[in-house]
């Protein structure tokens, strides 16, 4: 296909134009760039988030498993493409790496995780504001964002995405410190909240989340209670639903199964009975951890470290032995006045790898060391002797009953995988690095010895290094090598596990954010107490793209009542291990956070000594959970937040058709523009979906040679996309060309696809004018390509028809320096401009009306609150008069009259203040509306791309 500079310029302007906020075309570039299969409900959710430029944000509340991260990634990607680079993601600490990987691998967005260490390093290097983003999306945890609230306030964010946003739903309570601090810090920022459970136990939670996004969506808490307390009245219910509709979007799994197939989960339980020496060790260390005064554990970190030691104790004798040794060395150093090189938290992290994230959420800080008294020294000496005894006992245990149970369980699980038709691949999760080493030795002497790969936070073992070295050789010169050794090591280990391995032994921290759809067997060697962590573990395999049912293996210690009850609670109440979707939204959302639940479990282990005490405590905990999971509230949430299936299905069908059409068109334009601009530097496939770059046209760009594909179909090719540095340079080159008037001879036979409507115009000629109209309004811009064409006989061609000239090749281009466009072409361009501006004005008018209506509702809410106070005083006054009339003695009558006069005075004062307050509310409303009106003004600019004569042969 022979293209011209005119084709290339037209394509470049089409590919880079800014689109209206309510058009799926807006996302076409991001859809082409994303290395992920986007489903229509995700595109629809992202479009909802962009719907009105006047809004302060949105809440995406899709059910678990529908890809809210992808929806937010699409929104972030679009902001990035618009050069709006002040982007922040706030997420639970254990999801930071997952966000980092998803945004980098699926959307090619540069990211950086900001935490205490990197923040201090940035300050030390001379960066005054580490939160001020320059070249990357910033990711941080809730706790860190709260600690650095002043920094957040100082940045004029383009978008703040908040994951697991149900943590903020009690922001209306002053006791929820993190939520209130973040709300105040981010009040001016546009926000995107992600949560599967926006409403759990009370309508006030919904008020809290909505007010976090936009404090003018509802009035105050009192007026919200007053208006929406009785949802049984249909009018009240519909009013609330209407107020929520512009701000909250929710899709259900049953509504999208046509596009997103789900497999099931199957649970397997392997029971084991520890040997006598294992039980002795468990009981001795448990008793030690219950002592009132422990020198080895700082008082402020005792609850956290006790939990860690209990988890290591349950993991393996090897794990607890290492931890006990750490405590012994530190206590001896304390007596010798030798300050440790590392904090206890840092040292224990070598045993329990996710400790840094757990500690951040538990929020403890280590105490300064106080001077030791003689009694302290004696206590330490005794504690050291006790710890050495526990450690020696642990070291003498060379085989663990749970380890032997693992070998049995793997045999059963692999048989089940065979039955299901899945690959014999298993991921084994442990919370301890020492246990990981033990399992490697254990499996290395078993029939499962071949194809074992370790996965943890450092991957410093020889096996991982060898896998990494081979991977680097294999992918040398390709985009697969990112330059970050940590990221590349993770990619190498996952690829090895997928292609050659059979068992991956992973720690908690090491496995965050990896996707293992090719593996369908999850083994919880150590079971976390945090149900959200368990769901994330299983979700590594049980996710979109998994073709087989997933088998989940757990272990139960028959001698440990607490372990049994924890498993029962996670299985029966949280429904983590069975079914199609795993943990239900209702239950996972019922707990304020997994960490709080983890603390409750830790408290039971620490405080209960007998089986009966343990049983009673778990019964009480389960009863609390049951009361939190309120059926009536679940029904209310469904009615309030969910749309009818038929309505959703129709919307998704349209969304899919539109997004697929735009994506195909954009890919085709991008590849055709690239073919022309590379001008012999590459060899293209016949279907224009791939090319081999033979020479670098831009010496200043580091451009690897080889095969580029769009979309990428082979693992060794480079993914070509609009955001690629080569594409960006070519787009700029094509856009900036000066195109003098010419005659373009279009070849009807060269149209791909054939445009049958051009058949009557063969052997005709005429004129063509292409302009770009740019309009700035409502703090955003949009561009429109205006194409006017006329035949020499004077027939004006429809604008959408005229655009299709560029689907045809050109057999010839002839310079026509004397050419001047016909006045009728100019008039047609002016008509198109007028239509575009009118359409934008009508759309902006609707958006303004919605914003004004919202502000009217806010003002009315506040007035309702004021009027309610007067009604309350009227009621009190009526009661006081009745009491005064019924009084028997003079003294009682006089006292009653005094109360009546006091209430009348108060009511009259309230009435006067009501009018003043209403005037103030109206003034505030008018001020807000004037600000909105200012954003509606349009700034218009026009640029002629080219004018030409055309001839069709």
Question: Can you describe this structure?
Answer:
This is Type III restriction-modification system methylation subunit. InterPro entries: DEXDc_RapA, Helicase_ATP-bd, Helicase_C-like, P-loop_NTPase, SNF2-like_sf, SNF2/RAD54-like_C, SNF2_N. It holds the Pfam family SNF2-rel_dom. With 953 residues, the protein is α/β, with parallel strands linked by helices. The chain has 4 domains: 202 residues, Rossmann fold (3-Layer(aba) Sandwich); 331 residues, Rossmann fold (3-Layer(aba) Sandwich); 93 residues, no CATH class; 213 residues, no CATH class. Helix content is 52%, strand content 13%. It has 34 helices and 23 strands. Strands 3-4-2-5-6-1-7 form a 7-stranded parallel sheet, with helices on both faces. The protein has a 6-stranded parallel sheet with strand order 8-13-12-9-11-10, with helices on both faces. A 6-stranded mixed sheet has the order 21-20-19-23-18-22, sandwiched between helices. Helix 4 packs across helix 5 and helix 11 crosses helix 33. It starts with a helix and ends with a strand. The model has no long low-confidence stretch (mean pLDDT 86).
**Distance from first to last alpha carbon:** 15 Å
Query: What is the mean predicted local confidence, pLDDT?
Result: 86
Count up the domains.
4
Determine the fraction of residues in helical runs and give it as a percent range. 40-55%
The computed structural class is: alpha/beta
The count of strands amounts to 23
Q: Compute the number of helices.
A: 34
CATH architecture descriptor name of the largest domain: 3-Layer(aba) Sandwich
Q: Could you say which overall geometry the principal axes of the C-alpha atoms support?
A: globular
Radius of gyration: 33 Å
Please indicate the percent range of residues in DSSP E strands (runs of 2 or more): 5-15%
* Biggest sheet architecture: 7 strands, parallel
- Poorly predicted sequence stretches spanning 5 or more consecutive residues: none
By CATH reckoning, the class of the largest domain would read: Alpha Beta
The CATH topology of the largest domain turns out to be: Rossmann fold
Strand order of the largest sheet: 3-4-2-5-6-1-7
GO molecular function: ATP binding; helicase activity; hydrolase activity
Protein name: Type III restriction-modification system methylation subunit
Domain Helicase C-terminal: 406-588
Region (Disordered): 339-376
């Amino acid at each position: 296909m022979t293209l011209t500079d005119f084709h290339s310029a037209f394509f470049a302007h089409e590919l880079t134009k800014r689109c209206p906020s309510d058009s799926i075309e807006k996302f076409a570039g991001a859809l082409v760039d994303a290395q992920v299969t986007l489903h229509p409900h995700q595109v629809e959710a992202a479009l909802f988030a962009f719907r009105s430029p006047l809004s302060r944000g949105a809440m995406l509340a899709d059910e678990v498993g529908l890809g809210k991260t992808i929806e937010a990634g699409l929104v972030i990607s679009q902001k990035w493409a618009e050069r709006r680079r002040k982007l922040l993601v706030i997420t639970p600490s254990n999801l930071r790496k997952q966000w980092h990987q998803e945004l980098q691998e699926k959307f090619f967005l540069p990211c950086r995780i900001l935490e205490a260490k990197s923040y201090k390093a940035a300050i030390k290097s001379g960066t005054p504001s580490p939160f001020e983003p320059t070249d990357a999306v910033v990711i941080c945890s809730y706790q860190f964002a709260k600690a650095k609230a002043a920094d957040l306030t100082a940045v004029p964010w383009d978008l703040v995405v908040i994951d697991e946003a149900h943590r903020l739903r009690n922001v209306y309570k002053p006791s929820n410190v993190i939520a209130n601090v973040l709300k105040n810090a981010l009040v001016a920022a546009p926000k995107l909240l992600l949560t599967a459970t926006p409403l759990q136990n009370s309508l006030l939670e919904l008020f809290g989340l909505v007010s976090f996004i936009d404090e003018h969506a509802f009035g105050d808490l009192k007026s919200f209670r007053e208006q929406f307390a009785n949802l049984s009245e249909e009018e009240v219910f519909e009013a609330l639903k209407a107020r929520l509709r512009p701000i909250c979007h929710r899709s259900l799994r049953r509504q999208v199964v046509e596009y997103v197939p789900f497999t099931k989960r199957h649970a397997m339980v392997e029971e084991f009975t520890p040997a006598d020496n294992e039980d002795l060790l468990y009981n001795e260390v448990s008793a030690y951890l219950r002592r009132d005064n422990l020198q080895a554990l700082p008082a402020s970190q005792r609850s956290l470290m006790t939990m860690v030691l209990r988890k290591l104790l349950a993991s393996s004798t090897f794990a607890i032995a290492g931890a006990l040794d750490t405590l012994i060395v530190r206590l001896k150093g304390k007596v010798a006045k030798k300050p440790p090189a590392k904090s206890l938290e840092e040292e224990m992290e070598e045993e329990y790898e996710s400790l840094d994230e757990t500690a951040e959420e538990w929020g403890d800080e280590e105490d300064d060391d106080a001077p030791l008294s003689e009694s302290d020294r004696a206590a330490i000496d005794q504690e050291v002797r006790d710890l050495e005894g526990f450690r020696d006992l642990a070291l003498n245990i060379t085989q663990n009953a749970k380890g032997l149970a693992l070998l049995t369980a793997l045999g059963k699980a692999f048989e089940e995988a065979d039955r299901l038709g899945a690959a014999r691949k298993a991921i084994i999760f442990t919370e301890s690095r020492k246990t990981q080493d033990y399992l490697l030795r254990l499996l290395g002497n078993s029939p499962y010895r071949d194809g074992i790969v370790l996965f943890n936070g450092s991957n410093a073992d020889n096996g991982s290094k060898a896998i990494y070295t081979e991977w680097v050789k294999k992918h040398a010169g390709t985009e697969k090598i990112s330059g970050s050794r940590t990221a590349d090591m993770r990619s190498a280990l996952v690829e090895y596990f997928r292609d050659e391995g059979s068992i991956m032994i992973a720690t908690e921290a090491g496995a965050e954010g990896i996707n293992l759809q090719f593996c369908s067997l999850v083994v919880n060697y150590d079971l976390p107490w945090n149900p959200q962590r368990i769901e994330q573990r299983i979700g590594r395999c049980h996710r979109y793209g998994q073709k087989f049912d997933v088998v989940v293996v757990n272990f139960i210690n028959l001698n440990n009542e607490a372990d049994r009850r924890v498993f029962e609670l996670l299985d029966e109440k949280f429904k983590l291990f069975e079914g199609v979707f795993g943990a239900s939204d209702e239950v996972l959302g019922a707990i304020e956070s997994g960490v709080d639940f983890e603390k409750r479990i830790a408290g039971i282990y620490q405080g209960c000594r007998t089986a009966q005490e343990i049983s009673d405590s778990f019964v009480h905990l389960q009863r609390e959970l049951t009361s939190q999971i309120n059926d009536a509230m679940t029904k209310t949430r469904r009615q309030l937040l969910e749309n009818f299936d038929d309505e959703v299905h129709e919307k998704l069908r349209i969304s899919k058709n539109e997004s697929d059409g735009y994506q195909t068109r954009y890919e085709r334009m991008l590849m055709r523009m690239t073919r022309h601009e590379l001008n012999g530097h590459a060899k293209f496939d016949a279907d224009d979906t791939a090319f081999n770059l033979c020479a670098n046209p831009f010496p200043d760009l580091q451009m690897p040679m080889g095969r580029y594909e769009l979309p990428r179909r082979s693992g060794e090719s480079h993914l070509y996309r609009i955001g690629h540095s080569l594409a960006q340079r070519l787009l700029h080159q094509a856009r900036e060309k000066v195109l003098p008037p010419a005659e373009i001879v279009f070849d009807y036979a060269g149209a791909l696809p054939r445009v049958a409507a051009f058949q009557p115009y063969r052997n005709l000629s005429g004129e063509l004018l292409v302009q770009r109209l740019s309009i700035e309004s409502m703090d955003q811009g949009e561009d429109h390509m205006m194409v006017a064409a006329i035949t020499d006989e004077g027939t004006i061609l429809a604008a959408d028809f005229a655009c299709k000239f560029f689907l045809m090749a050109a057999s010839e281009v002839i310079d026509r320096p004397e050419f001047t466009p016909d006045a009728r072409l100019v008039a047609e361009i002016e008509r198109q401009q007028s239509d575009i501006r009118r359409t934008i004005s009508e759309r902006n008018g609707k958006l303004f009306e919605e914003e004004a209506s919202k502000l009217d509702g806010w003002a009315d809410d506040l007035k309702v609150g004021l009027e309610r106070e007067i009604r309350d005083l009227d009621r009190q006054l009526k009661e006081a008069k009745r009491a005064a009339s019924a009084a028997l003695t003079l003294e009682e009558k006089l006292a009653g009259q005094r109360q009546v006069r006091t209430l009348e005075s108060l009511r009259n004062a309230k009435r006067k203040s009501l009018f003043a307050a209403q005037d103030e509310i109206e003034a505030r409303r008018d001020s807000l509306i004037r600000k909105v009106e200012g954003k509606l003004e349009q700034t218009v600019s026009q640029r002629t791309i080219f004018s030409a004569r055309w001839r069709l042969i």
